[in-house]
Amino acid sequence: MIDLYYTPSPNGHKITLFLEEAQLQYRLIHVDISKGSQFHPDFLQISPNNKIPAMIDSSPEDGGKPLSLFESGEILLYLAEKSGKLLSGELRERHTTLQWLFWQVSGLGPMLGQNHHFNHVAPQTIPYAIERYQVEAQRLYNVMNKRLEVSPWLGGDRYSIADIACWPWIHAHQRQRINLDTYPAVNNWYERIRTRPATERALQHTPSENR
Q1: pLDDT in tens, 47-74
Q2: Pair type for strands 26-30 and 54-57
Q3: Is the pLDDT of residue 207 over 50?
Q4: CB-based contacts of 29: which residues, under 8 Å, 6+ apart?
Q5: What would the 3-class secondary structure string for 191-210 be?
Q6: What is the DSSP letter of 122?
Q7: Contact between 211 and 17 (Cβ < 8 Å)
């Protein structure tokens, strides 16, 4: 059994998307960030950066004690290697996939997160910040669109953890003031993932729900 410490946010949805796609057993443990649960000492033992998602695998492959992990990119990589799913074993496709996974965790997620913050959360309207992150969001969408013009999936010919990492952020495109019609290859990719049964299941989760 895998315990997933979760909030229904893009980074949380990354992991539920994988778990549903790979059909792994897991339990959701809701972390109420509105009440500061991410700062509870027990949670900090699992996620010292006080962020979700975090995970405990009670049956790691080495047969040892439960293994805890934090950081969504590492969790996706761990689960892909544990299950043998959604990450190619072929050298070139594997490393192409990992490049796009790291592109998401280092660029796409942080920049779209800043876009959302200055558009919807910041207590003051700061035109410079709004414009800066809007332009960067558009640039990243364009990078992704160019990739998907020449490849059906970010990692190559197969759906992978790179697509799973990026999709929840693109799912919030309207909040980012992005018109997907401007990026037709991204739009096509987005719809193909949106209609997958595993995606539909992952988005229906509620706190304390088991799978």
Answers
A1: 999 999 999 999 999 999 999 999 999 9
A2: unpaired
A3: no
A4: 3, 4, 5, 6, 208
A5: HHHHCCHHHHHHCCCCCCCE
A6: -
A7: no
